[in-house]
Amino acid sequence: MTNPVPSQPSELDQLPDRDPQETAEWRESLDAVARAAGPQRASYLVRRTVEHAQRSGLPVPSLLETDYVNTIPTGAEPAYPGDEAMESRITAWNRWNAAAMVTRGSRFGVGGHIATFASAAWLYETGFQHFFRGKDGLADGGGSGDQLYIQGHASPGVYARAFLDGRLTEAHLDNFRQEAGGRGIPSYPHPRRLPWMWEFPTVSMGLGPLSAVYQARFNRYLEHRGIKDTSDSRVWAFLGDGEMDEPESTAALALAGREGLDNLTFVVNCNLQRLDGPVRANFKIVQELEAQFRAAGWNVVKSLWGSAWDELLRLDTAGALLRRLREVPDAQFQTYATRDAAYIREHFFGADPALVEMARLLSDDRILECFHTSRAGHEPRKVYAAYRAAVEHKGAPTVILAQTVKGWTLGPGFESRNANHQMKKLSGKEFRAMRDLLELPIPDSALDEELVPYAHPGADSPEVRYLQERRAALGGPAPARRVHPVALPEPAERPFAALAKGSGSQEIATTMAFVRLVKDLMRDKETGHRWVPIVPDEARTFGMEALFPSAGIYSPLGQTYEPVDRDQLMYYKEARNGQILNEGITEAGAMADFTAAATAYATHGEPMIPFYIFYSMFGWQRTADQFWALADQLGRGFVIGATAGRTTLTGEGLQHADGHSPLIAATNPAALSYDPAFAYEIGVIVREGLRRMYGPDTGEDRDVFYYLTVYNEPKPQPAMPEGVEEGIVRGLYRFREGEQLGSDAPRIQLLASGTAIHWALDAQRLLAREWGVSADVWSATSWGELRRDALECDEALLRGEDRTPYVTRVLEGAPGPVLAVSDWMRQVPDQISQWVPQDYSSLGTDGFGLSDTRENARRHFGVDAESIVVAALAQLARRGEVKRETVARAAGEYGIG
């Protein structure tokens, strides 16, 4: 028998077929089954064969999608290790208090979310009772515990559990979302607001899953580098199915699959609803997510149906139920959860004669149970089985797709309703119905129609004792954030001294100066191993390739190939204990790396010193939300905007020319922003940052991070003048006084930051030699820190204290007006204008960038030396200190205007 020609080309056509007749017989057998027993039977046999082949180790592609049923059959579920009745009572108390807290808060208009936790209660409770490890023992070298990324809208349930456990009081709950008085608790997981409980801010949707992947990856990094044994630490990320639409939610799935992060578990609460309606009204979000995760190399566990569905699946001998489950869109399932049995019989079972026959065997109560309440996410045995499968799986991360009903146990007014995300309270009648459903011993006399009470079984009740015993067995309370202060020794003087002495006639860009400093600091015997260089595939642009062979690029596989540049001194070296995190073209991934490293002092009790160096334009502009989350998570470290400024990056054009990042950074209260002009300023700032963030506690706010802008324009680096350290740190000092031109000569103060100081110095010479004006040049290392200090002084005035801002005090008495200039838009230096005692004006690079030489770009924006001269003369002319025609003459001579 000859092999028939396939109707469609196949990739297998290019491979030799050793036995075409055998191949044809296999095809014919499958066709025969399809004709005799139907396509469902043929499909079943093929899938069984593929499954057997995979388990036997045969190299066959995996399926991206399976049937719309549980991955773990009921008969394969492990024995449940807990007291299910006791845990049901604990969960009931938590459900009640979560709803009561939000309802009571609605009196003050502060709102809250009820429906999310109602759907996910067992997803959390099962983990807290049996899986989530605490941090007790960290101080004496114990484990790090598990890292829990709690879904933001589920926070009321976690607060309710902490109340039951005794970690929160009724007063705390009654001040939910009311923090201004100092007694409240934050709306969502916010480490900055409740630092003893929350580790990770998650309510900016999408950042939780992204951060969780890189946290799990950083845990491995610490272990592979011999810094911390994190082998018993697992990352759990609780997510909403609607949240998975955020691009950040799925941005790092391939990384987790590629690196086999089996210390990571995603739990996606598939209640089929997002904020305004169905997640996939006309499709199936569970099946879509399964295909995405499987394609990325994840282990997928679907936990969809409760035990009531077992009977229906046993009756499905023809596969009609599986077909129907697969074809019904999510929005229709949401409708089934709210309709009566007659509707479900007609619209679900009535679609197939085989299902009509099945429905005749089912009572109305069983149909309602299946379609209204029986979801695997509401049954602790199903959830436990899924979690156990996740922690036992090796070689890949696991995602659990758990199906629930949004608003479950809150009554028909909440369950599966599109509007339930915006519903903030239950009525007295609804609370009574909820009490009866949960079987809580709360008398009617305690149920005030206007002010429902909190409920607690008592500090010595069996429920509380059980809860606390389970948490003790798992290593203490969770979630919990612990900080064990570890002061790092001050690094050696030599790296800083090298920058302080200058470069002589050699021209060095400040980007290179910073890289050289860190390279030297990474050699420090005490702290060098704690530096974590992070770069999104631009290391060679920043001159960091010298670190490749010495520090190595982190890879959990090491280097399985011979690099093409192995015969060169600075070859591309990957290593399992590599120190550099070179993430490829992903600023979001690099920021997630940075956050994990910047908070390791709390997460793992290991202070790390990350520095994240990025193309200036693609840092804050792309990932400002992650910078905010970093601040909320109390991260520490250095972020470096390299190739900074609007005009220093020759020829790159609009999208690469950064003129506004320091302005975005100024909106972040934890960011200490610096725009250093010289190499020695970088040394002073980094040294101060190490002291403040990692040295002995002096009472200052240590939970900050330093943002430095560095430039790619080579310039001779001067030696550090004496006595300028305070000015560098605080933001302003006089770098060079103007020439003494006589008592009648006009005077002006030029304030410049970053590379703009070189234009100001050229302008200083031109003003003196060609126009008889004496100009002092000041280095403004931080417009932001000058403003921060001034704002603090303004606040002090409201308390009756008389404090003068540093910028006011330093400039007090300096003769003439002030002209500020930078390679940034004018709003950056204008941050300090109201506290400058002199007449103030500024120059900057407002507008869009463009491709050209540095000289032409600076003339275009009016910030080059000649433009500064004209602007200075114009300012003096307004004061009557030079003639107005002098301004026009200067502009004409320089070709400006």
From TrEMBL:
The gene is aceE. Residues 15-26 have a biased composition (Basic and acidic residues). Residues 488-714 form the Pyruvate dehydrogenase E1 component middle domain. Its EC number is 1.2.4.1. This is Pyruvate dehydrogenase E1 component. Residues 731-864 form the Transketolase-like C-terminal domain. Residues 151-303 form the Transketolase N-terminal domain. Residues 1-26 are annotated as: Disordered. CDD domains: TPP_E1_EcPDC_like (cd02017). The keyword Oxidoreductase applies. Its cofactor is thiamine diphosphate. Component of the pyruvate dehydrogenase (PDH) complex, that catalyzes the overall conversion of pyruvate to acetyl-CoA and CO(2).
